[in-house]
Design a protein that fits this description.
By secondary structure, the protein is of the alpha+beta class. It contains six helices and five strands. Bound molecules: zinc ion.
Length: about 160
Amino acid sequence: MLSTTFALGLKNHLISAKLPPKECFKQKPYYGRYYGRKENFMKSAGTVDLMDRVARTDKTFELVDGHWLGKCLICNGRLSFRTSDGFGANIEHIYPRVLGGTDALENLALTHPGCNGEKGRNWDKPSKRRVPERNLAYLEMVKRFQERRQERWRDPEI
Ligand SMILES: [Zn+2]
Protein backbone atom coordinates (compact mmCIF):
# COMPACT_ATOMS: atom_id res chain seq x y z
CA MET A 1 0.00 0.00 0.00
CA LEU A 2 1.46 3.34 -0.95
CA SER A 3 1.50 6.09 1.59
CA THR A 4 -0.35 9.21 0.55
CA THR A 5 2.79 11.31 0.65
CA PHE A 6 4.60 8.86 -1.54
CA ALA A 7 1.71 8.60 -3.94
CA LEU A 8 1.45 12.37 -4.18
CA GLY A 9 5.19 12.66 -4.68
CA LEU A 10 5.01 10.07 -7.40
CA LYS A 11 2.10 11.85 -8.98
CA ASN A 12 3.95 15.16 -9.02
CA HIS A 13 7.00 13.44 -10.33
CA LEU A 14 5.03 11.90 -13.16
CA ILE A 15 3.37 15.19 -13.92
CA SER A 16 6.62 17.11 -14.01
CA ALA A 17 8.63 14.42 -15.70
CA LYS A 18 6.20 13.18 -18.28
CA LEU A 19 3.55 15.74 -18.97
CA PRO A 20 4.69 18.12 -21.63
CA PRO A 21 3.94 21.68 -20.63
CA LYS A 22 0.82 23.08 -22.18
CA GLU A 23 3.00 25.31 -24.35
CA CYS A 24 4.36 22.26 -26.13
CA PHE A 25 0.94 21.61 -27.56
CA LYS A 26 0.20 25.24 -28.04
CA GLN A 27 1.48 27.08 -31.05
CA LYS A 28 3.08 23.99 -32.45
CA PRO A 29 2.80 24.39 -36.17
CA TYR A 30 1.38 21.40 -37.88
CA TYR A 31 3.66 20.20 -40.63
CA GLY A 32 2.23 16.72 -40.53
CA ARG A 33 2.40 14.03 -43.13
CA TYR A 34 -1.18 14.75 -43.93
CA TYR A 35 -0.45 17.73 -46.09
CA GLY A 36 0.22 16.75 -49.62
CA ARG A 37 -1.08 13.24 -49.17
CA LYS A 38 -4.61 13.48 -50.22
CA GLU A 39 -5.66 10.05 -49.09
CA ASN A 40 -4.65 10.87 -45.54
CA PHE A 41 -6.65 13.97 -45.05
CA MET A 42 -9.73 12.98 -46.98
CA LYS A 43 -12.33 12.26 -44.37
CA SER A 44 -15.31 10.00 -44.83
CA ALA A 45 -18.79 11.52 -44.99
CA GLY A 46 -19.51 9.85 -41.65
CA THR A 47 -16.51 11.54 -40.01
CA VAL A 48 -17.40 14.95 -41.46
CA ASP A 49 -20.95 14.54 -40.17
CA LEU A 50 -19.67 13.57 -36.74
CA MET A 51 -17.36 16.61 -36.66
CA ASP A 52 -20.35 18.78 -37.39
CA ARG A 53 -22.25 17.23 -34.50
CA VAL A 54 -19.32 17.71 -32.14
CA ALA A 55 -19.01 21.38 -33.14
CA ARG A 56 -22.72 21.92 -32.49
CA THR A 57 -22.30 20.66 -28.94
CA ASP A 58 -19.24 22.81 -28.23
CA LYS A 59 -20.06 26.40 -27.42
CA THR A 60 -16.68 27.72 -28.52
CA PHE A 61 -17.70 26.87 -32.10
CA GLU A 62 -19.61 29.05 -34.49
CA LEU A 63 -20.43 28.67 -38.12
CA VAL A 64 -18.88 31.33 -40.36
CA ASP A 65 -18.75 31.19 -44.15
CA GLY A 66 -18.66 27.45 -44.52
CA HIS A 67 -16.20 27.00 -41.68
CA TRP A 68 -16.59 26.05 -38.06
CA LEU A 69 -14.49 28.38 -35.91
CA GLY A 70 -13.73 27.46 -32.34
CA LYS A 71 -11.07 26.24 -29.96
CA CYS A 72 -8.93 23.14 -29.88
CA LEU A 73 -9.77 21.06 -26.83
CA ILE A 74 -6.17 20.15 -26.17
CA CYS A 75 -4.22 23.39 -26.60
CA ASN A 76 -7.12 25.83 -26.36
CA GLY A 77 -5.82 27.58 -29.47
CA ARG A 78 -7.99 28.81 -32.30
CA LEU A 79 -9.19 26.11 -34.59
CA SER A 80 -11.19 26.16 -37.77
CA PHE A 81 -12.23 23.53 -40.22
CA ARG A 82 -14.19 23.37 -43.44
CA THR A 83 -17.72 22.11 -43.09
CA SER A 84 -17.57 20.51 -46.53
CA ASP A 85 -14.75 18.04 -45.85
CA GLY A 86 -13.61 18.59 -42.28
CA PHE A 87 -10.20 19.81 -43.39
CA GLY A 88 -8.32 21.63 -40.63
CA ALA A 89 -9.29 19.60 -37.58
CA ASN A 90 -9.47 16.07 -36.27
CA ILE A 91 -11.83 14.24 -34.01
CA GLU A 92 -10.27 13.49 -30.68
CA HIS A 93 -11.45 10.63 -28.48
CA ILE A 94 -10.87 12.06 -25.03
CA TYR A 95 -10.95 8.66 -23.42
CA PRO A 96 -9.19 6.85 -26.23
CA ARG A 97 -10.64 4.05 -28.27
CA VAL A 98 -7.70 1.78 -27.49
CA LEU A 99 -8.81 1.84 -23.86
CA GLY A 100 -12.47 1.37 -24.71
CA GLY A 101 -13.52 4.99 -25.23
CA THR A 102 -16.72 5.34 -27.24
CA ASP A 103 -18.06 7.58 -29.98
CA ALA A 104 -20.48 9.26 -27.56
CA LEU A 105 -20.50 13.00 -28.23
CA GLU A 106 -19.30 13.75 -24.69
CA ASN A 107 -16.20 11.71 -25.40
CA LEU A 108 -15.44 13.48 -28.66
CA ALA A 109 -13.82 16.82 -29.26
CA LEU A 110 -12.26 18.79 -32.09
CA THR A 111 -8.54 19.39 -32.08
CA HIS A 112 -5.72 20.43 -34.32
CA PRO A 113 -4.48 17.39 -36.22
CA GLY A 114 -1.07 17.90 -34.59
CA CYS A 115 -2.45 17.99 -31.04
CA ASN A 116 -4.55 14.94 -31.72
CA GLY A 117 -1.54 13.10 -33.12
CA GLU A 118 0.66 14.03 -30.15
CA LYS A 119 -1.81 12.68 -27.65
CA GLY A 120 -2.50 9.56 -29.68
CA ARG A 121 1.12 8.67 -30.29
CA ASN A 122 2.68 9.71 -27.01
CA TRP A 123 -0.03 9.12 -24.46
CA ASP A 124 -3.00 7.05 -25.47
CA LYS A 125 -1.29 4.12 -27.03
CA PRO A 126 -0.44 1.31 -24.64
CA SER A 127 2.95 -0.26 -25.15
CA LYS A 128 5.34 -2.54 -23.33
CA ARG A 129 6.62 0.38 -21.32
CA ARG A 130 3.44 2.36 -21.12
CA VAL A 131 0.25 1.38 -19.36
CA PRO A 132 -1.96 4.45 -19.72
CA GLU A 133 -4.57 3.17 -17.25
CA ARG A 134 -1.96 3.13 -14.51
CA ASN A 135 -0.30 6.42 -15.33
CA LEU A 136 -1.64 9.02 -12.91
CA ALA A 137 -0.41 11.95 -14.95
CA TYR A 138 -2.09 10.55 -18.01
CA LEU A 139 -5.37 9.94 -16.22
CA GLU A 140 -5.22 13.44 -14.82
CA MET A 141 -4.76 14.84 -18.30
CA VAL A 142 -7.72 12.85 -19.62
CA LYS A 143 -9.82 14.09 -16.72
CA ARG A 144 -8.84 17.68 -17.46
CA PHE A 145 -9.94 17.29 -21.06
CA GLN A 146 -13.21 15.67 -19.99
CA GLU A 147 -13.90 18.60 -17.69
CA ARG A 148 -13.04 21.09 -20.38
CA ARG A 149 -15.41 19.37 -22.76
CA GLN A 150 -18.14 19.54 -20.12
CA GLU A 151 -17.50 23.25 -19.52
CA ARG A 152 -17.86 23.92 -23.21
CA TRP A 153 -20.89 21.71 -23.66
CA ARG A 154 -23.93 23.16 -25.36
CA ASP A 155 -27.10 21.24 -26.05
CA PRO A 156 -27.61 20.75 -29.74
CA GLU A 157 -30.66 22.37 -31.31
CA ILE A 158 -33.17 19.77 -32.31
ZN1 LIG B 1 -4.42 22.29 -30.57
